[in-house]
Design goal:
Amidase, alpha/beta, catalytic activity, two-stranded antiparallel ribbon, 14 helices, globular, Amidase_dom, AS_sf, Amidase signature (AS) enzymes
């Protein structure tokens, strides 16, 4: 492969080439760092602005990995053990702290804060031989579905610079789509992994609650979870295996059903006889026609390949979901944000609004009342999925968001009939937070097409509680029969 194309390599393919001594970790790291410099930091009007820091130490780590491959020492099987990520560059969300490095979470007034220790996901990447070479942007406190802040400026979507990569892991999604890394870390409390994965045309995974360790005390919030992003299903599975498992710092972590495959030979054969539920338009969500079309086309291809695909209904209203989930945030995340930011100047408008909106919601609905609403939503999803292996749904109801928008007054959507609909809160423009309420269910976001504005469209593949392999099998099957572009042009 020509040197100028090395940034296009996927993680699993790069590992194979390292092992065959056809590629050096130093060569790959150099290629992605050069790509960041050219497109992200010196791209002028076309700058994506997804990377907030590159780490010089990554060059020494790549050289050490190069020596290990050259020495021909013992290596664990591909994707396993302490060599699972050996020599691979990994971009990490800035909130995943690295000891001795800045940890601001995008808040200008906290720009001089430094992490005291590595976040658990950083620990696990390093223990598997991965090289954290770049850190990516997010909105303040990861509380918006767009990615801009006073500290880091506006992060733009590589597919259309006028539009947002989504949020809150917008920098991670944009970095993958632009070729800055083969793997990235993200987090998800209401869709923050899946939303940018969908808008950027990459793969994002919301693992079941407890499968990937976080940091207390907010790790105890059962909506949340840290996780992986990649440009393919196999690459995302690779990083998932590294990140999952019980960790002593997070008492919510749980064992899983086993290692997820990172190779899917004859992937489409898995579909034969599988029963798949389709919810192209959940409840009263006004799904954009371009989004619904792409999801239906993907479902039709799965059916043509041997699956039994049947449409089901979920009786979720955007208003009800908003009230329940904002009430939840108003009892946990909102007060935590208010405590951390108390007295800080120059907070983003969306941060101030989120704290105020969640406080108001908590005043209308107690935590016990939100639990009752969550139980109802969980029963409704279980009923819809009964007798099916996985369920399909759009990630986003809207086809895109402005890169510099804050959407304080809500978001304008378009129904399947082409009728304009105004949604009171921007979170209603995304069909993700219901699956944080159902947070024992694994959810994989995969690309399924494009909207008229040039942005990719993403589809959620939802599994039964802790049935993680099923969503990766379904995603690999779709990838095999409906390949997607790995990079933005």
């Amino acid at each position: 492969m020509a040197p100028e194309a090395l940034h296009e390599l996927g993680a699993v393919e790069a590992l194979r080439r390292f092992r065959a001594r056809e590629l050096s970790p130093v060569e790959l790291l150099t290629a992605v760092l050069d790509r960041i410099d050219a497109v992200d930091q010196h791209g002028g009007a076309d700058a994506v602005n997804a990377v907030v820091q590159t780490l010089d130490r990554s060059r020494d780590a790549a050289a050490a990995a190069e020596r290990r491959y050259a020495d021909g020492g013992d290596l664990a099987p591909l994707g396993e053990g302490e060599t699972a990520l050996l020599g691979l560059p990994v971009a990490t969300k800035e909130k995943h702290g690295i000891a001795g490095e800045p940890l601001s979470q995008g808040i200008y007034a906290l720009r001089d804060e430094v992490a005291a220790a590595d976040h658990p996901v950083i620990e696990r990447i390093s223990a598997a031989g991965g090289i954290v070479h770049a850190r990516t942007s997010s909105p303040e406190f990861s509380c918006a579905t767009v990615t801009h802040s006073k500290l880091w400026g506006v992060t733009r979507n590589p597919w259309n610079r006028e539009l947002s990569p989504g949020g809150s892991s917008g920098g991670a999604g944009a970095a993958l789509a632009a070729g800055y890394a083969p793997l990235a870390t993200a987090s998800d409390i209401a869709g923050s992994t899946r939303i940018p994965a969908a808008f950027c045309g990459v793969v994002g995974y919301k693992a079941p609650y407890g499968r990937i360790p976080g940091l207390p005390p907010l790790a105890a919030d059962w909506y949340r979870g840290d996780g992986p992003m990649g440009r393919s299903v196999a690459d995302t599975a690779l990083l998932t295996n590294v990140l999952t498992g019980i960790h002593p710092v997070d008492h919510g972590t749980v064992p899983g059903e086993g290692r997820i495959p990172v190779e899917f030979p004859d992937a489409a054969a898995w579909l034969a006889g599988k029963r798949i539920a389709l919810v192209a338009r959940p409840g009263d969500y006004p799904v954009h026609p371009d989004v619904e079309r792409a999801v239906r086309e993907a479902a039709a291809q799965l059916a043509a390949a041997g699956a039994v695909v049947e449409e089901v209904e979920l009786p979720w209203s955007t208003a009800s979901v908003r009230d329940i989930t904002m009430g939840h945030f108003g009892n946990i995340l909102g007060p935590a944000m208010a405590q951390v930011t108390d007295g800080l100047p120059d907070l983003a408008d969306y941060t101030q609004r989120f704290i105020a909106d969640t406080a108001a919601a908590a005043g209308r609905m107690s935590l016990v009342e939100t639990l009752a609403g969550e139980a109802r939503m969980q029963a409704e999803l279980a009923g819809a999925m009964a007798g099916y292996d996985v369920l399909l749904a759009p990630v986003n109801a809207v086809d895109g968001l402005r890169a510099d928008g804050s959407y304080l007054e809500g978001v304008d959507a378009v129904s399947a009939a082409g009728v304009g609909v105004h949604l009171e809160h921007y979170w209603e423009g995304h069909i993700t937070v219901p699956f944080n309420v159902n947070n024992r269910c694994p959810v994989l976001s995969v690309p399924v097409g494009f909207a008229g504005n040039g942005l990719p469209v993403g589809m959620q593949i939802v599994g039964h509680p802790y049935a993680e392999e099923s969503v990766f099998r379904a995603g690999a099957a779709l990838e095999a029969i409906r390949p997607w572009p790995l990079l933005a042009p």
